[in-house]
Amino acid sequence: MKHEAVAEKVGQRLKQYRLNQDLTQEALAELADVSLKAVKNAESGISTLSTYIAIMDALGRLDQLLAAFPDEGVSPVQLLKSSTQQKQRASGKNRIKRSDDKELDW
Q1: Of 33, 58, 64, 68, which has fewest CB within 10 angstroms of its CB?
Q2: How far apart are CA 104 and CA 43, in angstroms?
Q3: Which ranges are annotated Basic and acidic residues under compositional bias (predicted)?
C-alpha cells in the first residue's frame, strides 16, 4: 500500500472515531488543543505525528496508536553480541599465586 493511501485511511479512521463520539471538528480541535485546520488536515491524511497524538489522546484512543508501535525490547541477537564482546585488556585484579614447582597429582 502506498504511503498516501495509508495516510488517507488513517484520516478516514480519525473522522469515523470523531463521528462515533458525536463530536464536531471544532469540538475535537478544542479537546485536542489544536487548530480546526489541524483536525481537517489530519482527517485528510495530511498531518504531523504530534497532531495525530493530540487528536488520538483527545478521542481516548491513544492506546490504539501506541499499539501500532509495540515495544520489542532488545533482540536476542543484540543481547548475544553485547554479552560476547571480546575483552580488550585485563583488569589485573585476579592474580594467580604460583605454587611450588611440584608436579601435579592428576
Answers
A1: 68
A2: 81
A3: 97-106
Tell me phi and psi for residue 14, to 5 degrees.
-60, -45
Spatial CB neighbours of 17, under 8 Å, sequence gap ≥ 6 = 59, 61
CA distance 12 to 17: 9
CATH-assigned architecture of domain 3-67: Orthogonal Bundle (1.10)
Does the predicted model carry a pTM greater than 0.90? no
Domain ranges of the chain: 3-67
What are the cell numbers at 53? 497524538
Could you read off the pLDDT of 4-36 as tens digits, one per residue?
999 999 999 999 999 999 999 999 999 999 999
What cell numbers appear for 35 in the block? 487548530
